[in-house]
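# step 3/5: fold
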Amino acid sequence: RSAVAGFEGAEIRFDKNGSVQLATGAVHQGQGHATTFSQILNDRLGVDPGDVHYVSGDTDMVEFGEGSYGSRSAALAGSAIHMASQKILSKATAIANHLMQVDDAAFEAGVFASRKTNATVTLKDVARAAWTPGKVPPDMEPGLAAAAAYNNPKENFPNGCHVCEVEIDEELGTLELTRYVVVDDVGTVINPLLLKGQIMGGVAQGVGQLLLEDIRFDADSGQLQTGSFMDYAMPRAHHFPHMEIASHPTATRTNPLGVKGAGEAGCVGAMPAVGNAIVDALSVYGITEMAMPA
């Protein structure tokens, strides 16, 4: 399961020049939050990702947030961004109506238009006007900003299939992964390249734990013997074949974006897939189970 029940917040703030500050409590450690969250803004508000300044984990600037864990960032922070975008759009529509002197401004791809006139205004135009006296409705506060906190009601369940082929040298006992294939369903795919990278990295973590990685201490002194990457058997690129990774997305109804967790999908599937392949290869010797690391 992923995206366990909890909260996450997001704030969208347009500057006078039309650029956007996006702040969330979802802390990124290489997952590509700035890219995926900018894509959500682009989809909802037509904002150019190049105009987005992403702020993460700065408690002086982030109003509310719980962090990144349990494959929750896209589901919770992404949904909070979606909610904040709806608030932005509601206020921006009222300002656009005021600017065009109409009451039916419709928004699409970053532009407001009315059936009653050929006038249009962009969201950037609205953002600039929001900070200009006299260009917003009389009863409206200036500025264009919104914050939202998404309360996640229930977790969701990504799923998939990992298939691994191994070859073991019977004389040397050395093992080679000759093929690895993954088909995963993590719900709505926001960025296929970043998703593939997360699946690939997760597989590498799972394979490393299954085959090589082990924390060892000296039995007499308690001294850690694997305290650096010179001693700790982290897998290298040459341990892996080309990974064939595909998606079979089914949107979940547990959040507005339809996304499921992806961060742990690779690791969860890799350990049993590789372990089962090794046991299958050694079954001719009566082997039915094995301990990690192999």
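# step 4/5: annotate
The mean pLDDT is 92.
# step 5/5: archive (pending)
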